[in-house]
# Entry
Amino acid sequence: MLMNTLWGVVGSLMGLLYTGLQVMVPCLPPAPLSNDVITTDVYMGTWHFVAAAAWDEDDLKSFKTTDSSILHIQKGANGTLTATEGYRVGDQCQKNSWSYYISSVTEPFLFRTDFDAFVLIWDGKFINCPSCIIILLVDEDEEASALLFARNEITPDEVIQEFKSKMECVLMDEVLKAPLKKGYCKLDEAA
# Structure
């Protein structure tokens, strides 16, 4: 009970700080989606990887060999979200799966169940793409990247340019677009 109250106070203070920062830096995204919103059917299902942005080019190294990627988000057991990724490297399809805790105590952060990584999720309205999401991933190597996903396989160039512009405004100057030369892997085909 005390932990919930403490996190609630810290969360409220962080929200006020973020609101103040948005006034000073208008290109900051709005507040991340709440866990209650993320777990609705609107955000469940398949998303196609479009582009990634980072503060440091090295933080994008894992994306440089990836031709395409799809992400399937679904509700998991015991208050978790499961994210399953099917991605193509060369001619091979690979598959990864991660679970993230959904908790009001840590909202809006979603911590991976091994606590080695966390994500924040924004809807695509920030870049004028209601059928997109932006996921800020901080991984086990403490590398941060903003990942743009869309519901459709083809994303208009204007959306990618808007993403790039918004990311550059927060000094994420390194942007990598998915090549999409060999097509998307289907999750059931990935190894």
Summary: The longest strand covers residues 45-54.
